[in-house]
Amino acid sequence: MAEVPVSRGFKSKRQTSEQGRLPPGQYRTTDFPILSAGPTPDIRVADWKLALQLGGSLVRAWTWDEFEALPQTTLNTDIHCVTKWTKLDTTWQGVSFDDLLKSAGLEKPPQAFVMAHCDGGYTTSVPVEDLIAGKAMIATRFDGVPLAPAHGGPARLLVPHLYFWKSAKWLRRIRFMPEAEPGFREARGYHIHGDPWREQRYDGD
Ligand SMILES: Nc1nc2c(c(=O)[nH]1)N[C@H]1C(S)=C(S)[C@@H](COP(=O)(O)O)O[C@H]1N2
Ligand SMILES: [Mo]
């Protein structure tokens, strides 16, 4: 995490709670902006499936009911969009990437990167290192209620310590791959990794 100078003077309660939590160049917002490259798909959970792929073949697929039966994790976290808004203290519920791997019978990740594929064609790539050990989940609830379609419902990837474009909405398929490959936004100039604390906004940052 980036070093933030500690001020010893008086701080209001709000400043104290923000101390050290805004990555460089970010400002705080209290609403929840919606950023989508295309229209919000109308997804019925009866037709929903999540697939996990390795080397072109299917490792496992979950129907909605199977997915909902997996162990549930709650994550309280801050989220950071590359357009510079940060939202503090968001609460998500869903299935951790660790539990997803376990459910697929994978003791350890077989390759070092994944591509997340979404309804509508959006993609984004993430190192597996950024998904394991409780760092990421497939979220199905926000603030205790089902995730709104505009925010990626019924299920989205949540990788809160990376810029929010990595948190793929309307997630349908997770594909392991041996190397980093650019997804939708990475191919359009965004940074391949996207760590907000290192301000990895654009290719070359
Ligand atoms: N499928 C899909 N996922 C996506 C996007 C998108 O356009 N399509 N945009 C990304 C970007 S840039 C951001 S900032 C967040 C926005 O999520 P929100 O609309 O819930 O705030 O979703 C990310 N996931
Ligand atoms: Mo974004």
UniProtKB/TrEMBL annotation:
It comes from the Bacteria. Signal peptide: none annotated. Pfam families: Oxidored_molyb. Residues 1-31 are annotated as: Disordered. SUPFAM superfamilies: Oxidoreductase molybdopterin-binding domain. Residues 38-184 form the Oxidoreductase molybdopterin-binding domain. InterPro entries: OxRdtase_Mopterin-bd_dom (IPR000572), OxRdtase_Mopterin-bd_sf (IPR036374). This is Oxidoreductase molybdopterin-binding domain-containing protein.
